[in-house]
Amino acid sequence: MEKALIEAIKQHPRYNGLVARRSRFGWMMSAVMFIAFVGFTMLVAFGKEWLATPIGHGVTSVGIPVGLGLIALAVLLTAIYVVRANTVFDREMMAILKDARQ
User: Are the C-beta atoms of 37 and 70 separated by less than 8 Å?
Assistant: First the structure.
């Protein structure tokens, strides 16, 4: 990319707002995952008996669906981020790029 185009993008009034919103959204998603992971780790540390409680009469314990839920949350958060990045953030970046090229 040309240096002039890069400078034009950096000087665009909407670019800093986009970068800030994108960063804030990423940190928010990371915070949700971090809190869920720490919560799960605390459950493993301090709630072993509850996690080991069998579900029904089988051998599956409560910890299995809780752990799978943590994995599903990670996949869901990733999907939400990718959808938003591919729609909102990319669309706005393309508009900024189009303005900067003029």
Answer: yes
